[in-house]
Design goal:
Layout lengths: L3 H6 L9 E5 L5 E6 L5 H14 L4 H11 L1 H8 L5 H12 L4 E4 L1
Antiparallel strand pairs: 1-2, 1-3
Helix pairs in contact: 2-3, 3-5
Length: about 100
């Protein structure tokens, strides 16, 4: 099983982008993930799966959880510690679908 660092090393870097906006089906921005230290890994994972799946729904969220590797289990054990991973659990559990806008 790959680690998060190993998975992250295989994902594209988008220095030209500053953030991702997650929007519901009505176009309301529900979350912003910035491309900066502390959230850069989440930015890269979310951007990658959203590009692959055309947005962020349950299938994309499941792929993202695999990419987060050991952090996924830590998030299960400590709800609230990893809010960007917690959001993926919510997407799967509630069958949510978000569009993702890169800015």
């Amino acid at each position: 099983m790959s680690t998060f660092a190993e998975n992250l090393s295989g994902l594209p870097v988008h220095e030209e982008l500053t953030a991702l906006q997650l929007q519901d089906m009505q176009g309301t921005t529900l979350a912003v993930i910035e491309n900066k230290p502390g959230t850069q890994g989440s930015f890269r994972v979310y951007h990658f799966v959203a590009t692959q799946w055309g947005g962020l729904g349950p299938d994309a969220a499941r792929e993202a959880l695999v990419l987060f590797a050991e952090h996924t289990e830590d998030a299960k054990q400590h709800p609230g510690k990893h809010p960007n991973i917690d959001r993926l659990f919510e997407i799967i559990d509630q069958a949510l679908h978000y569009s993702v806008q890169a800015i």
